Amino acid sequence: MKNIKNKTFGVLLGGLLLPALLSSPVQADELHVAASYSTDHLNGLRVGYRWTDGPKILPESWFALVGSPRVHWELGLNTWVNSRHSDDRLNALTFSPVLQWTLTQSNRPLFLEAGIGVSLLDDQQISDRDLSISFQFEDRIGLSWQYDPISEARLSFSYAHYSQADLARPNDGLDFWVLTWHVPI
User: Fold this and answer.
1) What is the phi/psi pair of residue 128, to 5°?
2) Which of 4, 41, 77, 103 is the most exposed place for a label (fewest CB within 10 A)?
């Protein structure tokens, strides 16, 4: 029964996201690979795809109120493993807008990035963490450094939190420190 709910939710989420993504031209921006660590003995890997020219869902004037960040859209696939029991694994498909503010003006700039998106998990438990439902929010904040001015490749270090905002109980959530390598394409 749980598997049927997960698949149904995935189809519904895809049905909502796909039209939004196709409603405006999409320009590929970058691919990224990340490693994550949790103090709950969870280690993870992530691959993702980020683009800039995606759907405009809010007026530009709203972004001017918060410093006119650049808006990116990101799709990612995470896998987390309990380092004490390698067969204890959790996978997540995520979709999130990411706001990016330039902190330093140079040929190797530093950026502040933040985003709140959605994720779909293939299970509701990992280790001793009970997440209750497959739908989770993905919140993140971090610093990103463009270390190569020619390729515009970046490294970022961020904090990510997954939780379902008490839509169901319990809501243990997951917290990760994430190191990401971004490569423009």
Assistant:
1) -100, 15
2) 4
